[in-house]
Amino acid sequence: MRLPNGYGSVHKLSGKRRKPWCVRKTREIDNNGKQQYDYLGYYKTQPEALQALAEYNSNPYDIKTSIITFGEVYEKWSNERLILKDDAHPYGISQSNINGYKASWKLCAEIKDMKFVDVKLSHLQMVVDKSGKNYPTLRKLKVLLGQLFEYAIIHDVITKDRNVVEYVDISKAGNPKALNRKPFTNQEIKKVWSMVGANDYINVILMLIYSGVRVSELLDLKKINVSLKEQWFDITESKTNAGIRRVPIADKVLPYFQHWMSKNQCEYLLSTPDGEHFLYRNYYDSYWKPLMDLMGMSHLPHDTRHTCVSLLTSAQVDERFIKKIVGHSGQGVTQIVYTHLEVSELLVAINKI
After folding, report:
1. What secondary structure letter does DSSP report for 68?
2. Residues 6+ apart with CB under 8 A from 114
3. pTM (two decimals)
4. Which residues form a coiled coil (predicted)?
5. What is the pLDDT of residues 225-264, one digit of tens each?
6. What are the distances in angstroms from CA 76 to CA 84, 86, 150, 155, 256?
């Protein structure tokens, strides 16, 4: 399809690429008569690329700013605005407000690596709908989103008419204490076991089920924090104090921990086929979702955590041990450093399921 002169073009790149269609505009003609391009972005399909080009021509923006990610805008904004109020900074904000903004930002993890110009209302609504948070928390999130979009407008990342935050619906807020828990059934767990060997990442599902860790905790686990000999690993960073803990490695999944420890030179236990650190979005889109579809299941990664709790409860494991294994609130900071005996007890507990 021939596009008008000066409109820009859509071009398919060679080779196997996840997003082979690029959108470009001619910046200038060099001394040799060759066109020099500015690239607006890369897309999975030709229709998506053409839509992006049409949106650009409808509301042109500075192409140099078009590569700025949502996360980069947050970093720039936070460096300027999240300043603690004190004698040297009388116009700063309180520590509680700073903490509130940072907590809201954590909810945006799935879109932080997107280019800001590509973030649409549907992406913002997805963040709200998947958060499971209550109305006061979502109201704070919406304030943050408004601040980020205003900052992007002021710094010419987007035009004013692209600010869609006011249309984000937070009226259907959930209750963080009443999550939509959907553990794997016993039949589904058996099916996962039967699929081991079909794909290298099937065993990751079992590692999650038989450890109770959050998927982000497992993706960020470094090999240096794993002891195969004593069958435990340390979670050194978590969303709560209770989440910083030593987790036992069940006998059933020990071979999979051994497999990933020796698989490559990546410092992280789990890695991409190229030996790189996993980002959640990459893991979910490229591995978790396709594997769920392959097995005919509909689960979120967090369901493995609820499955672990359910299995431990069914095995009549002491509630105190369950909290220590999965890192639920209820254990104090002084309980985080376990003795060797306690770790052995946790291993006995996890091996009951």
Report:
1. -
2. 69, 70, 123
3. 0.52
4. none
5. 999 999 999 998 776 666 788 999 999 999 999 999 999 9
6. 16, 21, 13, 10, 41
List Cα–Cα distances, 275 to 65, 216, 221, 228, 331, in angstroms: 31, 17, 14, 20, 36
Q: In the chain, where are the structural domains located?
A: 9-58, 70-167, 186-350
Beta bridge partners of 157: none
- Report how far residue 299's alpha carbon sits from residue 188's, in angstroms, rounded to the nearest whole number: 10
- Could you give the strand order of the β-sheet that contains 9-12, starting from the edge strand earlier in sequence? 9-12, 21-29, 35-43
pLDDT at 41 over 80: no
**Contact (Cβ atoms closer than 8 angstroms) between residue 223 and residue 259:** no
Q: Which of 220, 221, 188, 222 is nearest to 205 (CA)?
A: 188
Alpha-carbon distance of 173 to 125, in angstroms, equals 11
In sequence order, which ranges of 165-230 are alpha helices (DSSP H)?
A: 186-195, 202-209, 215-219
Q: Which CATH class is domain 186-350?
A: mainly alpha
Give the separation between CA 196 and CA 251, rounded to whole angstroms: 16
Close Cβ partners of 160 (under 8 Å, ≥ 6 residues apart): 153
Where do we find the tokens 């240096």? 224
- Residue in this structure with the two tokens 């979910």, named with its chain if needed: 284
Q: Residues with Cβ < 8 Å from 303, sequence gap 6 or more?
A: 181, 182, 183, 184
Is the CB of residue 101 less than 8 Å from the CB of residue 140? Answer: yes
- Residue 149 identity (one-letter amino acid): F
